[in-house]
Amino acid sequence: MWRLVLPVCLLISPGLTSTLRPAAPAAHDRPASAREQPRVGQQDRGRDATAHAAHERLAAASAARQRYGVAIVRVGLMPKDTSQEYEITFWNSIKDSQYASDYEAYLKAYPNGRFAPLAQARLTRLRAEASKPAAASAASAAPATPALHPASSPAAAAPAPAPAPAPQAKTPPAPEAPPSTPPAAQTKAAPASAPPAAATAAAAAAAAVAAKGNPAIAKPGPHDIQDCPSCPVLVAVTPGNFTMGIDTDDASERPAHRVTISHSYALAKYAVTVAQWNACVAAGACPRLSNENNASPNAPVRDVSWDDAQQYVKWLSKVSGKPYRLPTEAEWEYAARAGTETRYWWGNDMRKGTANCKDCGPPWHVEAPDDVGSFPANAFGFYDMAGGVWEWVSDCWHNSYKNAPTDGHSWDEPNCQTRVIRGGSWRDGAGYMLAATRFKYDSSVRYEANGFRVARDMK
């Protein structure tokens, strides 16, 4: 028998009569406690606690009516930083999605969640829709064959399921389901009729096309560092101090505190690109990723987990002979701020055409982030520190900066399952482009808006 543990603030009623305030969805929405103070002069990053409670009432009532004929109505505000709150945040971010993988990810994270029936219904519909074009294509290609090709079946048409995230409170919005990752030995070979010389020439031509106009793999500048031909270009960062975080916004970004970075380090000038990732794939050291999300060789690689990024830096360390790693969160923000104390690295007001986000001006495309280097660099010479893709850093997630290290080193925990991502993505609004913006993600989960850049010590 289904059991409900109802706190004092929950009621059972046969219907729902709430009036909701409209709220724009965000790819990475934040907990209610993080949005009670909207940004002055900027688009708010998401809904406040009241809107969250209203959405919960509506969606939960709908799911309950489908299953049990009653509606669960919540009265009052949701407790701060709860697993239920993250489930609501997750659902609100995908509830209008047309991607089956988003609903698969939700069901993996919350198999018995309050929106599970609705998620399953939408998943079934999207799978059925996806199977129709494949079936039509198979029929036109082989009309005499009565049986459908396996790829046209709903089960085969859907993406591979995502790995189950860690505990629910650690699951941020809408992780993309990871594609299958065949080893390098299983990659498609050149046609048998093509001689080895022709295949080599074709590969060289493809590499030339990928390199054309790509600053990430162009010849390094006089102050750039490149440790090997396939290594990302780095920029040396000199020691210094800065104020990390902000006291007027998300609780996770408080308290603002002084950090002194006394060590020199180098950080990648751009996010790791698809072409750079594929070099690791070709070496058999990294998993092959979704072609749908990584079609352009000069775009930032995405749909990667923190664990995937660790495989890449391990391979990079091996081929370069240098100790590559992910940057610490403090190193990342120090480089992103580039000597400024303002809300954005370019000032306190949004400036169109400065970051790759949906409210930030052209060039911008809803389908994918633009190629690295398409927007201006900050004063330290780093590109795309705001927008593009969310970037993994080494630190374990903490709900605030209370007791955070002040020396720029990584803030880790034993058996950490949830890591920090920084910078916002092309899918997010301008309110996510602030230098202090941070979020959390399960380290084993891939999401289509998550990428990374690399760092190494300068010794």
TrEMBL record:
Q: Which InterPro entries match?
A: CTDL_fold, Sulfatase_Mod_Factor_Kinase, SUMF_dom, SUMF_sf
Record domain Sulfatase-modifying factor enzyme-like: where: 231-456
Q: Where is the composition biased (Pro residues)?
A: 160-182
Q: Where is region (Disordered) located?
A: 22-51, 140-195
The record, for Pfam families, names: FGE-sulfatase
Q: Where is the composition biased (Low complexity)?
A: 140-159, 183-195
User: Which residue stretches does the UniProt record annotate as biased composition, category Basic and acidic residues?
Assistant: 27-51
List the protein's name.
Formylglycine-generating enzyme required for sulfatase activity
Which species is this record about? Paraburkholderia silvatlantica
